[in-house]
Amino acid sequence: MEQDGFVNYTALLHCAVYALLKRGVVVYVGQSRTPFKRLYSHATVRGRPLSSVSPYASKRKLGFQFDEVWLRPCALTEVDDLERELIQKYRPRNNTAYSGRIPEELKTLVADIIQSGVIPPSRPTLNIRRRI
To answer: What distance in Å separates the CA atoms of residue 20 and residue 26, rounded to the nearest whole number?
Structure first.
């Protein structure tokens, strides 16, 4: 029910599968129990360079560009199958299956960190002795 120009976005509060589009082409399909939070995280990193997150990163973009969002509410038991089905149907360029290999970008990033000589601080240890 639309009143006074409002649009009902209640579907964003429930489990759903979503598609992100750029110029009418599906570029990513995902799923979430709380789509409004997930879509917000996509929007905040959209097109930002990876170097804005890490000084050791390359010029590669962290988030991908999109200008449209489709949302399909569904039951939690259906979400995996529906997402898989939509990925097979649209073949989005940003949905890549993890093959068990380390991506080249990650190898490069780790190599850059090692070459920079920056050593992360060690984690403090906690020694607890039990008294009897």
So the answer is: 6
Order of strands, sheet of 25-32, starting from the edge strand that comes earlier in the sequence: 25-32, 16-22, 68-73
Q: What is the model's pTM?
A: 0.63
- Residue-wise pLDDT tens digits, 78-123: 999 999 999 999 999 888 765 556 667 777 877 887 788 776 667 7
Query: In this structure, are residues 48 and 63 in contact, taking their beta carbons and an 8 Å threshold?
Result: yes
The maximal CA–CA distance of the chain, rounded, in angstroms, is 72
Q: Which residue type does 119 have?
A: I
Q: Is residue 35 part of a domain?
A: yes
In the chain, the number of structural domains is 1
CA angle centred on 99, ends 92 and 85, rounded to 5° = 40
